[in-house]
Amino acid sequence: MTLSRASVRARVRAGVRGRVCHRVRHKLRKMLPAAVLLAQVPVLAGAEHPLPDPDLSRLEPAVRAKLGDARQALLDAIDDPDIDAQKRSRLYGHTGKLFHAHDAYAVAEVCYRNAAALDAGELRWPYTLGFLYQDTGRFEEAKEQYRRVLELEPAHAFAQLRLAQVHLDLGEWDDAALFYERVERVLDQPDLGAAAHAGLGRIALARGDQAAAVEHYEAALELQPEARRLHVPLGQAYRGLGNMELARKHLEQASNVKLRVFDPILDDVGSLSVSSAMFLTAGAQALKAERFDKAERAFRGAIAVHPENHRAHLNLAVVLTQRGALEEAEVSAREALRLRPDYYFAYFNLGTIYEARGQLGEASGYYRRALEGNPDEVKFNYRLGGLLMRTEEYAAAAERLRVVVELAPAFVQARYLEALAHIALGSAATARDLLEGALEINPEQLTLMSPLARLLATSKPIATGDARRALVLARALIERQNSLDDGETLAMALAAAERFEEAALIQLQVIEAARHQDLEELLQHLEYNLERYRSNRPSDRPWPDGGSAVEGSGEEVEEYRDRGDPKL
Predict the structure, then answer these.
(1) DSSP, residue by residue, 63-88
(2) 389-403: per-residue pLDDT in tens?
(3) Could you tell me which of 101, 100, 64 has the C-alpha nearest to residue 112?
(4) What is the pLDDT of residue 271?
(5) How many CB atoms lie within 10 A of CB 139?
(6) Cβ distance 124 to 265 under 8 Å?
(7) Long-range contacts of 370-376 (CB under 8 A, 24+ apart)
(8) What is the Cα–Cα distance from 238 to 299, expressed in whole angstroms?
(9) Which one, of 163, 228, 236, lies nearest residue 204 by Cα?
(10) CB of 173 within 8 A of CB of 14?
(11) Which of 75, 132, 196, 204 has the smallest CB count inside 10 Å?
């Protein structure tokens, strides 16, 4: 399971104890209107606490029915005098998990309290109650419950881990470090070790000890390499040490995949949900991880629970498009539009479906319809710009991609495509400036290097600085991927630097490789440049006649991958 729910976990400003952060206060304020569902329950000593009768009207019908039935079943069972205390405890505990899974915290709290009171030797219920308190920002009460677990089982690693997290969220770094160090010693569970190192890394960063932070985050990633979100703080730590190369390397590897720990007590809480919102969340996570089978099951589950959920239909369409089931995808996207006619993400996804079919005119129409409703959506603009490149409407493509760059200046792929559009329009100087700007943002982006090197190497006249820059870029390409295209680029750069013999030698090797690969259509261009190098002249054709860097750009540039409706 995920170590903490980002939507509800509180964070505290460094060094400030006991202050619940704005995010948790905001969530709790949002939850308070559902008064009975989320009100705190007074602590009663002795007898079992009475079970609240929550207002479930805000919930989906399937959820409402399941929770209502579960509450009534519990009431019927606890009225039976033949049920012993341990069985009553289990009934309360399992019912509490069901309500907890649907964020009905008040009922879940009472159930956990009663379960713990009826079976004082069972640690599951104080542990789960502690998590509920931690989940809703009631940190001191969470501490109390986790300590109770440790009284029952002093070496309980999960309770120590969660107690460490509570202390960390309160800014109590020394106490947090103490418990993280205990968890780190649990050698037979790598996920626990990863979590402990991540926590210690966070403490080290907060204290300004960048070297210790690097050590802990590296150890965490070694134990759980898939937790790619950890590359962000690791990159920040390297930046603090002044190692910009490693900082950039790790930041480039970062993604939204969180560190995960299998918790045998809590992992079944989420599985009890029948809420479409829970299915949507699970589906979104699976879609980001490109686990399309799991995502499809989750979105179909959301639709089964709530057939009128337009987002579930749209996200199912996205998954089906990724899997190539375009007919089914169109049906789902149109159902989303039927349920909500102004749903611009549905128009966009219809555009992706028609583009996948090769019906580019229809796709363009749907993208433009999506932009009518949301002209500042980056991926709407980018996808239309890419489509205009495919239909060779380069002026319109350049204009559309300029909008993307203005909206998202760090979107390197958009800058790249904009540069290709200007190359196709014959505006080499503009393209050079765009590619240089993109490389300033991401100096390691190999895709940008080849067209820039070729433009510099074939400029008229060729400045000494341009030739030197082209050669640096071409050598970087050869060192890292060494393709036929890169060899040709290196030959151009050598000729631009007036190193014609070396250029001719490289060009001969490129020609031989092209013949071996049966690239007959390329040979005339390659031999044309070879003759220029032999006569001590640089190339004046960065690409073959009738071609440009635009050709094949769909494979070279990473698409802005559609992840469905982000408002899940």
Answers:
(1) HHHHHHHHHHHHHHHHT-TTS-HHHH
(2) 999 999 999 999 999
(3) 100
(4) 61
(5) 22
(6) yes
(7) 370/344, 370/345, 372/344, 373/342, 373/344, 373/347, 374/344, 376/407
(8) 40
(9) 236
(10) no
(11) 75
169-215 pLDDT tens trace: 999 999 999 999 999 888 788 999 999 999 999 999 999 999 999 99
DSSP 376: T
Extract the tokens encoding 96. 């509490």
Give bridge partners of residue 463 from the DSSP assignment.
none
DSSP bridge partners of 108: none
Task: Give me the residue label for tokens 């190193």.
Answer: 499
Alpha carbons 118 and 374: distance in angstroms, whole number = 56
CA distance 522 to 514: 7
- Which two structure tokens, joined as six digits, stand for 154? 């002093």
- Whether 298 shows a pLDDT value over 90: the answer reads no
20 three-class SS: coil
The pLDDT score that the predictor gives to residue 270 is 61
Q: With 0.70 as the threshold, say if the pTM is over it.
A: no
pLDDT computed for residue 36 by the predictor: 33
Report yes or no: 434 and 415 within 8 Å, Cβ to Cβ.
yes
C-alpha–C-alpha distance, residues 348 and 369, integer Å: 8
Q: Is 305 within 8 Å of 276 (Cβ atoms)?
A: yes
Q: Which domains does the chain carry?
A: 22-223 (1.25.40.10), 271-440 (1.25.40.10), 459-541 (no CATH)
Strand pairing partners for 2? 260
Asked if the bond preceding 451 is cis, omega within 30° of 0, the reply is: no
Burial of 531 (0-12, 13-18, 19+ CB in 10 A): exposed
